[in-house]
Amino acid sequence: MSRVSGKEGLVIIAAILLLNVVFFAPMFSSPHSIGKSDWPAHQFLYEVARQSLLVYRQIPLWNPYYCGGNVMLANPDCPALSPFILLFAFFPTSLGLKIIVLLHAAFGMLGMYLLSREHGLNMRASILSASVFVLNGAYILHLGVGHIPILHVSWLPFALFFFMKCLKKQPLSGRSWKTALFAGLSALSLVLMLFEGGIEVFIFSCVLLFLFGFLQAIKKKEISALMCLALVFLMVAVFGAVKLIPIYELSLTDPHPAMFTDSVAPMTLYDMFLGKDQSAGRNAPYQKQGWWEYGAYIGHLAFLLFLIGLFANFRKQWHLALLCVFFLFMFMGDTAPLNVWRLSQLLPGFSSLQTPARVRVVFLLIAGLLCGHGLSVIERMTVRKGEKKRLLSAVFSWFVVAMVLCSIFMVNRRIIGSG
Fold it and tell me: Where are the alpha helices (DSSP H) in 285-386?
């Protein structure tokens, strides 16, 4: 673990805000315009929530503006419990929603930075990990076609970060209140996804947290990791009950099983992560749906760092490698050597999901961490005794981070501009 000082924290927050403002600037070229594809549908839900909460001062249990009336709070995509609804008291819905997207990207990068530092990465490697996680093609492509709920995966790094903090406290010691505090913050990070309408990423994130905690218990050979895990999910059930119970009741009265299941063809993987054409309308010859469901550009250099982090640091980070393989198989669906997606259909909530490729937003969090570990491996190989040589090593690392950012900016920022 590397502690984040107050001065470093302020610098990082300022850098993250600046980076995201520059990256998402094309989205604000027409601040009051409405995005394409699914954007109007989700903006409609935000507007209904705004009317109910801020105009009529009512809890949005019912949506009277949709098909003669329909459920609102029980709608899995409903963002009515999001604290960001308060922004609409100051901004119109069209502009407020874009500010929400920008803030989520910034929070996602901050959470990933903290998580990377908790994994022992330095500032340079942590910035690299945060950039790969938030600015990758999957995140941006879903934004480009208005898949707002997918963007709430931004809270996942916080859930893992606070869970790791929870693991450091002994649940049965005199400081058990700190265990409860960090477990509660981890649970709230997951529940926030649910409250904002990100039911898919909530389900995927719960799977990741469960597996992460289970592997930590094996790695540390401590049962306390499982106790922390149970405490987190108990709090998720309690804090999220106001949303989970209506969704569960709706699923019983009006179930929506998946009409088909898509898969990611192995031939698509290269274009997903390394192909320069990431436009939402590009051809996806081996797939059933549009490219927005598959694209995940990170660039060749980031992919090389990912491979270095995966293999060169395997003895210390084997649990990340296993998670990486698991979620790779999961988002590939039926074409994976082990069909994890079919097995997952036995879990609650998965039977209504039909696009395993969306799991790649969780896979990219693990990939981002491994990219950071890859850069750390290179730094350890190049660093030499002497202040001047250490400075040269740091300059080289910053150059690598800048090259990865330039590659991501050149490819993925165009998606926002075209949207």
Answer: 300-311, 318-332, 340-344, 360-382
Read off the tokens for 408: 């991501």
Pick out the chain residues at pLDDT < 50: none
Q: Is the pTM of this model over 0.90?
A: yes
Interatomic CA distance for residues 172 and 150, integer angstroms? 37
Place of tokens 């905690």: 213
Q: State which amino acid sits at residue 22.
A: V
Q: Are 321 and 259 in contact (CB under 8 A)?
A: no
Q: Which tokens hold the place of 375?
A: 């850069």
Assigned token pair, 205: 């994130």
Indicate left, alpha or beta for 68 from its phi (over 0: left) and psi (-120 to 50: alpha). left
Whether the CB-CB separation of 98 and 374 falls below 8 Å is answered with: no
CA 375 to chain centre: 21
Torsion angle, alpha carbons of 324, 192, 107, 273, to 10: 30
Q: CA angle, 72 as apex, 68 and 73 as ends, to 5°?
A: 160
Contacts of 126 (CB under 8 A, 6+ apart): 112, 113, 116, 117, 372
The DSSP code for 54 is I
**Tokens 């898949």 correspond to what residue?**
147
What is the spatial distance between Cα 357 and Cα 359, in angstroms, rounded to a whole number? Answer: 5
| CA–CA separation, 16 and 28 (whole Å) | 18
DSSP H or E run through 70: strand 70-71
Residues 365, 366, 371, 372, CA torsion sign: positive
What residues form DSSP beta bridges with 70? 63
| 8-state DSSP, 266 | G
- Output the DSSP codes for 236-264: HHHHTHHHHHHHHHHHHHS----S-----
Tokens 């001065």 label which residue? 7
